[in-house]
């Protein structure tokens, strides 16, 4: 399952990230925010526009807004 398909408020752990699917500067930014393998996350809510962007992701005590394409590059498993 990828992060973009995770149901809201379901806790999960990032298993892997397909860094090749992201631009190098985007990958660095996500890693700096702690969105890497082993991080525990949950979807707080999704955007209301057509593509449901952005996705608000809870990671630790932070809420980070991600584009759906970035969340799709992250494989997660439910906890």
UniProtKB/TrEMBL annotation:
<dbReference type="GO" id="GO:0046914">
    <property type="term" value="F:transition metal ion binding"/>
</dbReference>
<dbReference type="InterPro" id="IPR008988">
    <property type="entry name" value="Transcriptional_repressor_C"/>
</dbReference>
<protein>
    <submittedName>
        <fullName>Ferrous iron transport protein A</fullName>
    </submittedName>
</protein>
<dbReference type="InterPro" id="IPR007167">
    <property type="entry name" value="Fe-transptr_FeoA-like"/>
</dbReference>
<feature type="domain" description="Ferrous iron transporter FeoA-like">
    <location>
        <begin position="1"/>
        <end position="78"/>
    </location>
</feature>
<dbReference type="Pfam" id="PF04023">
    <property type="entry name" value="FeoA"/>
</dbReference>
<keyword id="KW-0408">Iron</keyword>
<dbReference type="InterPro" id="IPR038157">
    <property type="entry name" value="FeoA_core_dom"/>
</dbReference>
